[in-house]
Structure formats: C-alpha cells, structure tokens
Amino acid sequence: MMPSLFLAHGSPMLAIEQTEYTAFLEQLGKSIRPKAIVIFTAHWETQALTISSIDDVYDTIYDFGGFPPELYAVKYPAHGSVELAAKLKELYEQKGIDVQTDRVRGLDHGSWTLLHRMYPEADIPVVQISVNPFLSPKAQYAIGEVLRGLGEQDILVIGSGVTVHNLRIVKWGETKTEPWALDFDDWIIENVQSGDVEALDRYESEAPYARQAVPRAEHFVPLLIAMGSGDSANKAKVIHRSYEMGNLSYLCFQF
C-alpha cells in the first residue's frame, strides 16, 4: 500500500547538494518502493490536464539557469508508461475532466531532482502530469481524488511543489527562518491535518501572509492534488520540515 506524498522541490541544487533535506529524500526512497510513480509537477502548466505518455526514456529538462555545470550533467533516464498513462486518462475522462496526453516532453526539475535523490537508479516507471494553477483549490483537490486507490496498486502519487515559494524575497545565505513563513506553514499544517478542504479553499484570504508566501499558485496546488489523492480516513503526517534562504519551505506531507 503506497501513500500519497507532497514533496518540496525547492532549489534545483538539491540534485547535487548534501543537506538535511536530501538525506531525508534518500531515506524516504529506501523506505517506499512503488511499482510506478505518478508525479504532478509545478513546472508543467497547461490549461487541460496533460499526462505524459511514453514508454521510452525521458529527456532530462534543465528548466533553470545560472547554476554550476555539474548540475547540468545530471541525467535521470527514467522510462515512462503508456499503459499507466492510458489508465489515468480513462479515470479522468470518466469524471468529466478535460485531459490529454503528451508524447514528447521530458522530465522537468520539479520531477527529476526529487526522483534522482529518492530512486537514483531510475528504474521505476514515471508518469508526469501537468497542473493548471488557475483552477480553484477545491478543483485541485478533486483532481487528486480521481486517483484515490492507486496506492492499493503500489502506485505512488507525488505532488511536487513548495508551500512558501517567493523567489523575489528569499535571502541568500540566511539560515534563520523568517517568522511569517513559519506562520503560513503552521496554518497549512493545521488545516491539512484536520482535512479542512473548505478552509484550504479560502487560503488566499484566511491564511496568514498568503500573498507573500504564494504570489502565484503553481507551486502550491500540487499540495492540494496530493492531499486529494490520499486516504481521507488517515490523518496527514508532516514527514519533513526545514527551510533555507530565510523563507523557502521544504515542508513535506504524507497522506
């Protein structure tokens, strides 16, 4: 039985750095061994839900700039799964959700940086799915709900994003976390663990410092999708919480 996860992908440097967080990801990968992975990434935005559908090895997309050369040398040669992609497409069509498939896009850093640390052998099939940040929080949760039960088939669902993600106000080299970032994540933890979807639907107006923490929703919505895909009978768990650059959150949940 696989859980659903929300994992923070933060800086692309997590692919090559050794930190408290990368050590956590490595240990997590050792403790959870799925037969396939479905990952919603904040770095693939489309209006219609789009599912990668290939059996070949993915290209590794370096959708960032200004980082050390060794980061661009990292490859994550995971295979896709046309069979699983077709199954997911059918599930969404049955719920009346607009969905399409993509046969050319590689894995962006919202996917491969995390998976590179968790499963470095790249020997587990991966299906990558896009997000639409303009849908309501309730709609994001409903997208996740469609996939409930995949864990019983040993398929791991991951939402890859960040709760507090405002690159305009990060403080390079700062090791002390700013109180406002903690306050926002505290509110998120309280409402995620209580399963209060109604409150989360109103996070923009009710969560403290929401505009500061989430200037744009693309990194936040994978949390709601992962939450929706989890078993609502079990309380969500915080499985990691750390910060860097003053306010960049590495808060992670298991559902």
From TrEMBL:
Q: Which CDD domains match?
A: 45_DOPA_Dioxygenase
Q: Which UniProt keywords apply?
A: Metal-binding, Oxidoreductase, Zinc
Q: Which organism is it from?
A: Paenibacillus terrae
What domain of life is recorded for the organism?
Bacteria
Recorded GO molecular functions are: ferrous iron binding; oxidoreductase activity, acting on single donors with incorporation of molecular oxygen, incorporation of two atoms of oxygen; zinc ion binding
Cofactor annotation: Zn(2+)
Q: Show the InterPro entries listed in the entry.
A: Extradiol_dOase_DODA (IPR014436), Xdiol_dOase_suB (IPR004183)
Similarity comment: Belongs to the DODA-type extradiol aromatic ring-opening dioxygenase family.
Extradiol ring-cleavage dioxygenase class III enzyme subunit B domain segment(s): 5-250
Q: What is this protein called?
A: MFS transporter
